[in-house]
Write a structure and sequence with these properties.
The complex is a heterotrimer of chains A (379), B (531) and C (305). Chain A is α+β, with helices and mostly antiparallel strands and 379 residues long. Chain A is built from 13 helices and five strands. Chain A folds into two domains: 260 residues, MetI-like fold (Orthogonal Bundle); 81 residues. Helix content of chain A is 62%, strand content 7%. The longest helix of chain A is centred in the middle third of the chain and has 37 residues. The relative contact order of chain A is 0.13. The longest helix of chain B has 25 residues. Chain B is globular. Chain C folds into two domains: 70 residues, no CATH class; 209 residues, MetI-like fold, CATH 1.10.3720. Chain C is 76% helix and 0% strand. The chains are: A alpha+beta (379), B alpha+beta (531), C mainly alpha (305). Chains in contact: A-B, A-C, B-C. At the B-C interface, helix 1, helix 7, helix 13 and strand 16 of B face helix 2, helix 4, helix 6 and helix 10 of C. Chain B: Pfam families: SBP_bac_5. Chain B: This is Peptide ABC transporter substrate-binding protein.
Chain lengths: 379, 531, 305
């Protein structure tokens, strides 16, 4: 309320509507915090997948459904049996296996000359790397020797959030999931925005029969169930990232069109529009220069609500098995997978769910903040 | 307003009272809540085909012969039968005390009526081909002959004579399938397509239909006229459809259902840990395999297909992805199938995966495929397990320098696509046997079998072998011919066998008489519930 | 007003016709048919089946047959549930969905409006923060996570309520809770925002200036204005809730109609899909009308003539 008594010099500086809103948005702590969280998450989604030690589609066959852990894998007690079983597959005689620090060694022998290629049995394991055959003094084994020592480094891997049912790092998958989910949310909303604003502004501005007809089309599409539309799109075109945001965008623009049309009807009666008309500005010009910019306030607020809605819709599609294509993933898909694993592998549900909740929380608070900031009545 | 609240309170009190009354009445009644895979397409058994439907039909009807709780073929409506020396004529003697649920006697003519009806093109029975071994059946189904010309005749009320086209060693077992069940002629004719409605439906099995609420349950009550009714221990069975296996698991744990017809692989570890012996995994007559489109130039060379097959670590898929609910395999025909000996097997079945990868690389080189130059598309229908399987296979192919892309398709479109000779490289498919005979698996890849032969593999030698097997009477000789066919199939490898299916079930400790068996058949009449 | 309602209903007929037409051709263009199962059928048998269901006729002819039947109120037989007509399925399923959806809607409305108004009146206090925080949380958790969690906790671990199934009032508690929770959250947020705005509006200030008691000001004047956005939100929401939820019905095993849509579309059960489209469209149309009428009644500035 104090804002109503604005100091005069501020007016003289010509503070625009946008600046005004910006200042008020900055005063809203929840909104600022949300914006920061969102920015960080978006950043994590964009650059995160390149920074994590594991690629989101890298499969570690020996770490299927490894629980989340701060400690590095492999666990101490797992090293010895893993080394032994890998060596057994190489079909050589094995002496006693020793683990010291991060190296494992075991004497090996064979009836004939040791095949140097047997190191790959160790290297193939996710637990070890840099396997080599040495003689008793630690020098590389001479060719043709039938006895030696197999030495390998223990490969320390960290899976902070655990791994999934294929043995892929969940953290990396969540990061790529953030990227996909946010992209779907933003692109679907952008699409709804583009379609809805254009359509609504044209219908509202032209009015009369055209308006009637255009709104009738919206009513009809409104009564066609969303899932029907998406299932058919997926059936026709297969599943792809592009298709999903188009599908969501295509169903979400209807509300937008209605809002913009309502706004346009109001704005059209304003004096400045009538003045422009009198001056002979073209219809397209008026829609572009006057109608759309002035209807933007409620539209922006609606968009911030649309983004979370699109993300949730995508997760519903994932639950129905119509989500994005492997090896890509989305938060919704991860949660759907996690929900079916919740009894045995709770981490598969918890981490993606927490991430999604954080994103949606932030978007909601940011939306509220924006609404308060943009609301002209609130000044 | 207040009045309404009072009314509601009274009403709910009444509900509680009747509920209690219901419980006390139910005390004498043994109720079995049984999880099933899905609702049936219909209760008209001529129009059914799935395992879930088979479970329902097994309780509602009794065929000439039936499978007992360990899947042995035992007398059903027929108390005895004779087979002619040429293996072409079966004469069944029906028991006099076999009764329909309305008290009528089950007559030989009821079987003739049913067998003629299923072949009638107007019935449009999806599984009519199960009974094609009966003389003239196929011609009738094609509309070339009249139903009355079928090779099934009622000599008198209790004698049924069935003539076959050619000797069929698995014919008796075929008759245990739901397509071999009789129909009550009078009620079918009276009610037309409404004959399956509760109240109209007359059945001759241990149970009769009481109600059917879609997506909720099918309730069956013990048939008092059933000839073995004295030994039927469970009074009421509720078949509950579970599309979501996790839901069945929760209701099982809450004690609301006594068995689940399938296991949620995702929760396998949890179940094994917490439910112990109640988790049942049994070998099953089914194979999970990858059809390879052999017409495509890059996949036309059998060496390339063998190389791809070698690189697939079946043990990993079975134990890690499917959590031991599948078994690794290098053969196509399931082990332990009837009328067959030792399986044909891929030669590298017992080799280490790394050696196999070396061999695979060598084979690819021999076939002129450079490392990294071959990219295959792996296509599957929506399911988390198939997704994980294909993802893992793609990773395995990477080890021999073969790239892969993964494409998921929604179910109905997927099967249509494969059947219509879609432009795929490698897909997944599964086959569950209808009867325990290798023919039921090997016939899938006959050149003419366009519905099933997804790879569109054409091999005259294979077709000739299959034809020869069909004409061979001696079981051992026939088995040898079929094995030759399987060997050829595995040499050419138009399909890569990956895993054998297991049947998984949750069976409560209270439920007795449920025996694991390879056909996964569990008639309720053999079970009882311990208090 | 009566004339207006009548006119709206008359206008619904062409809308429905267009929806039916779009849906019919879209679903028929999708690859595969109702008989393409995992285990394929013999081509000969397939031909028998297609003949039995008129699939061998040209598409436009099938369309006319369907329209003719629809005009007589016949939604046709279901292809994937052949013991039932589509009408039978709705007759048993719709009351179930309406019961659950209606209860969830009523609870969400009462609780949501109450919480929202409470938060608005105590703006920027801990009550407000609690409501807003919980409400946001409620919106962000997908139903397919809440439903199994509730079933697990109350059904399996505590044993207080059935884990799934249908029959007694106990079976309804968890599904209703699952459906109502996110709606409570949304309605509370809508009410809160609108109430705050209404409390600042001129007519409420005037009412206060006249010295009307606070509860009259809030209860009659502010809430009446505040309920408007809730009402317009409720239109499509009520239609969606009453026609069932796929997720809730699958997870709790409830015989409503929510699943038919997905089952029908994925199984290419053409008539079932069409029937569902028609039912949902009718619900949307009717509830939009109800919303418009309620609007006129609540907000004297809106008039329909």
């Amino acid at each position: 309320m104090t804002d109503t008594v604005l100091p005069v010099e501020h007016h003289a500086a010509g503070r625009s509507l946008g600046q005004d809103a910006w200042i008020r948005l900055r005063r809203n702590r929840a909104a600022v915090a949300s914006a920061i969280v969102l920015l960080l998450l978006a950043l994590a989604g964009i650059v995160g997948p390149w920074l994590t030690p594991h690629s989101y589609d890298r499969i570690y066959p020996q770490y299927v459904r490894a629980p989340a852990s701060l400690e590095a894998y492999p666990k101490e007690e797992a090293i010895l049996p893993a080394f032994e079983s890998a060596l057994t597959r190489a079909r050589v005689q094995i002496g006693e296996v020793e683990v010291s620090g991060s190296t494992v060694r075991a004497p090996v022998s064979d009836g004939e000359a040791l095949d140097p290629r047997i190191v790959r049995y160790i290297d193939r394991s996710d637990l070890f790397s840099n396997a080599r055959l040495e003689d008793a003094d630690g020098n590389p084994l001479a060719e043709g020797a039938s006895e030696g020592v197999m030495v390998a480094d223990v490969q320390r891997l960290r899976f902070l959030f655990g791994t999934d049912a294929n043995g892929r790092d969940l953290l990396s998958r969540i990061l790529i999931g953030i990227r996909i989910s946010l992209a779907i949310g933003v692109l679907a909303s952008a699409m709804a925005l583009l379609l809805g604003v254009t359509y609504g502004a044209i219908a509202g501005y032209l009015g009369g029969r055209v308006d009637n007809l255009m709104m009738r089309v919206v009513d009809i599409l409104y009564s066609l169930p969303f899932i029907f539309f998406v299932i058919l799109l997926v059936v026709f075109f297969g599943r792809s990232f592009v298709l999903i945001f188009i599908a969501i965008g295509c169903t979400e623009w209807l509300d937008m069109a209605r809002i913009v049309r309502g706004q346009t009807l109001t704005i059209k009666r304003q004096e400045y529009v009538q003045a422009a008309e009198a001056l002979g500005v073209s219809d397209a010009g008026i829609v572009r220069r006057h109608i759309i910019p002035n209807a933007l306030g409620p539209v922006v607020v609606f968009v911030t609500l649309l983004v979370p809605k699109a993300i949730l819709l995508e997760s519903l599609l994932s639950f129905l098995g119509l989500g994005v294509q492997e090896p890509l993933t989305s938060l919704g898909l991860l949660i759907a997978e996690g929900a079916s694993n919740m009894r045995g592998a709770a981490w598969l549900l918890i981490y993606p769910a927490v991430t999604l909740t954080a994103i949606l929380f932030a978007l909601n608070f940011l939306g509220d903040g924006l609404r308060d900031a943009l609301d002209p009545k609130d000044r | 307003m207040l009045q309404n609240i009072m009314k509601a309170a009274l009403l709910s009190a009444a509900v509680v009272v009747t509920g209690v009354a219901g419980v006390s009445q139910a005390f004498a009644e043994v109720v079995y809540n049984r999880g099933n895979d899905t609702d049936p397409t219909t209760l008209d058994h001529h129009k059914t085909s799935t395992v879930a439907e088979g479970n329902l039909m097994r309780d509602l009807y009794e065929g000439l012969v039936v499978q007992n709780n360990v899947a042995e073929v035992v007398p059903g409506v027929a108390e005895s039968w004779e087979i002619s020396d040429d293996g072409l004529t079966y004469t069944f003697k029906l028991r006099e005390d076999a009764k329909w649920s309305n008290g009528d006697q089950v007559k030989a003519s009821d079987f003739v009526f049913a067998y003629q009806r299923i072949q009638n093109p107007e019935t449009a029975a999806p599984y009519a081909n199960m009974l094609y071994p009966i003389k003239n059946a196929e011609a009738i189904n094609k509309g070339e002959m009249e139903p009355s010309e079928l090779g099934a005749k009622a000599v008198d009320d209790t004698t049924l004579e069935i003539t076959l086209n050619q000797p069929t060693p698995y014919f008796l077992e075929l008759l245990t399938h739901q397509t071999g069940h009789p129909l009550h002629q009078a009620s079918v004719e009276e009610h037309g397509d409404q004959f399956t409605r509760p109240g109209n439906m007359v059945t001759n099995g241990a149970y009769m239909l009481e109600s059917f609420t879609p997506n909720d349950k099918i309730t069956m009550r013990k048939n008092p006229h059933f000839h073995d009714a004295d030994n039927v221990q469970i009074d009421v069975v509720n078949f509950i459809p579970f599309e979501d296996r996790a839901t069945c698991l929760r209701r099982f744990e809450a004690g609301e259902v006594l068995s689940c017809s399938d296991l949620d692989n995702q929760q396998m570890d949890y179940m094994k840990e917490n439910l112990g012996e109640q988790v049942r995994v049994a070998p099953y007559l089914g194979t999970y395999y990858l059809p390879v489109k052999v017409k495509k130039e890059k996949l036309a060379d059998p060496r390339v297909r063998q190389a791809l097959s070698m690189a697939i670590d079946r043990e990993f898929l079975a134990t890690e992805i499917w959590r031991d609910s599948m078994l690794p395999t290098y053969s196509f025909v399931p082990k332990g199938i009837g009328n067959y000996g030792e399986n044909a097997e891929l030669p590298y079945a017992n080799d280490d995966i790394l050696d196999r990868e070396d061999a695979a690389k060598a084979l690819l080189e021999e076939a002129g495929v450079e490392e990294g130059s071959l990219t295959v598309e792996l296509r599957y229908n929506t399911s988390e397990n198939h997704k994980n399987t294909m993802t893992a296979i793609g990773d395995m192919l990477k080890n021999i320098g073969v790239n892969s892309t993964i494409v998921e398709m929604e179910g109905t479109g997927y099967f249509d696509y494969m059947k219509q000779d879609g432009d795929f490289d490698i897909t997944r498919a599964g086959w569950i046997g209808d009867y325990s005979d290798p023919q039921n698996f090997l016939f899938l890849f006959e050149s003419e079998n366009l519905g099933f032969n997804y790879p569109r593999w054409e091999n005259a030698e294979y077709d000739a072998l299959m034809k020869k097997a069909g004409e061979t009477i001696d079981i051992d000789e026939r088995a040898a011919v079929l094995k030759e066919a399987e060997t050829l199939l595995l040499e050419e490898l138009p399909i890569i066998p990956i895993m054998y299916y297991s049947s998984g079930s949750l069976v409560s400790e209270k439920l007795q008489g449920w025996e694991d068996n390879v056909m996964n058949v569990h008639g309720t009449r053999w079970m009882s519930i311990a208090q | 007003m009566f004339a207006y309602v009548l006119r709206r209903f008359a206008g619904a007929v062409p809308t429905l016709f267009i929806i039916v037409t779009i849906a019919f051709f879209m679903i028929r263009l999708a690859p595969g048919g109702p008989f393409d199962l995992e285990r394929p059928l013999d081509p000969l048998i397939m031909a028998n089946l297609e003949r039995a269901f008129n699939f061998d006729k040209p598409l436009w002819q099938q369309y006319l047959i369907y329209l003719g039947n629809l005009a007589q109120g016949d939604l046709g037989p279901s292809f994937t549930r052949r013991d039932f007509t589509v009408m039978d399925l709705f007759r048993t399923g719709l009351p179930v969905s309406i019961q659950i959806g209606g209860m969830a809607l009523s609870i969400a409305l009462v609780v949501g409006v109450f919480l929202g108004a409470l938060a608005a009146l105590r703006q920027n206090t801990w009550v407000d923060y609690m409501v807003v925080g919980t409400a946001t949380f409620g919106i962000t958790i997908p139903t397919f996570v809440i439903a199994p969690l509730l079933s697990l906790f109350f059904g399996v671990m505590m044993g207080w309520l059935p884990a799934g199934g249908w029959g007694t009032w106990q079976h309804m508690v968890l599904p209703i809770a699952t459906l109502a929770l996110p709606q409570i959250a949304i309605i509370a947020r809508l009410t809160r925002g609108a109430t705050i705005e209404a409390l600042r509006s001129n007519h409420v200030r005037t009412a206060r200036a006249y010295g009307l008691p606070n509860y009259v000001v809030v209860g009659v004047h502010a809430l009446r204005a505040a309920i408007l956005p809730v009402v317009s939100y409720l239109g499509p929401t009520a239609a969606a809730l009453l026609t069932g939820s796929v997720v809730v019905e699958t997870i709790f095993g409830i015989p409503g109609i929510g699943r038919y849509f997905v089952q029908g579309a994925l199984g290419r059960d053409y008539t079932l899909v069409m029937g569902t489209v028609v039912v949902i469209a009718c619900f949307v149309i009717v509830f939009n009308l109800i919303v418009d009428i309620l609007y006129a009644w609540l907000d004297p500035r809106v008039r329909y003539d």
